[in-house]
Amino acid sequence: MPELFEPQNLIASLRPLAAAVALSPDAQAYRQFYGFTDALAARSCMGLLSAGGYQIAVQAWWPLQQPRATLVVLHGYYDHVGVYRHVIEWALAMGFAVLAFDLPGHGLSSGVRASIGDFAEYQTVLRAVLAEAAVLDLPQPWHLCGQSTGGAIIIDYLLTGEPLAQIGQTILLAPLVRPRAWGWSKLSYRVMRHVVSEIPRRFSVNSSDAAFIDFVHHHDPLQPRNLPTAWVGALSRWVPHIEAAPRSNRSPLIIQGEADMTVAWRHNLKVLADKFTTPQILRLPEAGHHLANEAPALRQRYFDWLSQRLG
């Protein structure tokens, strides 16, 4: 495994994204630690963006060929951009520029770890990132890709956020609407919120890629170790908001593993079929929740499926 980088040193070295130039030694160490190479990118940058009272860590890549679109990547809960190398490399190979960012409280971004006051804050950050895409003159259309909570943020944006004209296709990987056992989770939240502000995180085996599970559980310095009750409260307010949202005429591409033990995927697919016009859905019987880091054969199946629709 590459030598561990120092997250605080890296954060201190970051400049505003629009002024970012060559990667600092700390940024290079970060990229190496998470397995990124320069083979598929003509250039890349890493920097900060102020949004909603947060300092958001943003990264951009440009493909070797003339880019024909941009993929905006939103990671899942507890995640960060560093563990989305497979999605980013697929997009670069497709000829897309890539714009990816750490959510508030995640990765290199500021904020209480893995927490949020209200899911509306995610919308503020997403809009700021899309505004930065315009500043960077990233090629249109801007496709959106979200895993789990990242998918929830995109769903909210499409249903209630008046999407920009530049927005192209949407990819939802195991999107969150309701988590699994949501009734029990809400009851637990009502009891715990008066007693504790967070509980220890229970690491799950949410992928059949054993190397990824070992890395996240034992070696990734940017993994939050606790679940804040404030985040659960924000989710409990967001679920009825999104389930009552008006219908959209967009048709997202949805990929869902049937071995997913994190979200209530059957319920969620019904909600999304009602909220969107003829979404295209690929169901993978063997796949777990963390599709962005599933086993290589499973990733290749859905990447091929996506390539046929975005080619």
Write up what this structure looks like.
- Helix content is 37%, strand content 20%.
- The radius of gyration is 18 Å and the shape is globular.
- The protein has 311 residues and is of the alpha/beta class.
- Helix 6 packs across helix 8.
List the secondary-structure elements in sequence, H or E: HHEEEHEHEHEHEHEHEHEH
The overall average pLDDT, rounded, is 94
User: What is the strand arrangement across the widest sheet?
Assistant: 1-2-4-3-5-6-9-10
Total DSSP helices: 10
Compute the CA-based radius of gyration: 18 Å
Classification by helices and strands: alpha/beta
Shape field: globular
Beta-strand residue percentage: 15-25%
Distance between the termini: 35 Å
**Low-pLDDT residue spans:** none
Residues in helix, %: 25-40%
Q: Give the number of DSSP strands.
A: 10
Could you give a short account of the major beta sheet? 8 strands, mixed
In short, what is this structure?
This protein is of the alpha/beta class and about 300 residues long. The protein has helices at about 5-15, 25-35, 85-95, 120-135, 150-160, 180-190, 210-220, 230-245, 265-275, 295-310; strands at about 40-50, 55-65, 70-75, 95-100, 140-145, 165-175, 200, 225-230, 255, 280-285.
Describe the SSE topology:
Blueprint: H1 7-13, H2 25-33, E1 41-51, E2 54-63, E3 69-74, H3 85-93, E4 96-101, H4 120-135, E5 142-147, H5 149-160, E6 167-173, H6 182-192, E7 198-200, H7 210-218, E8 226-228, H8 229-243, E9 253-257, H9 265-275, E10 280-284, H10 296-310
Parallel strand pairs: 3-4, 3-5, 5-6, 6-9, 9-10
Antiparallel strand pairs: 1-2, 2-4, 7-8
Helix pairs in contact: 6-8
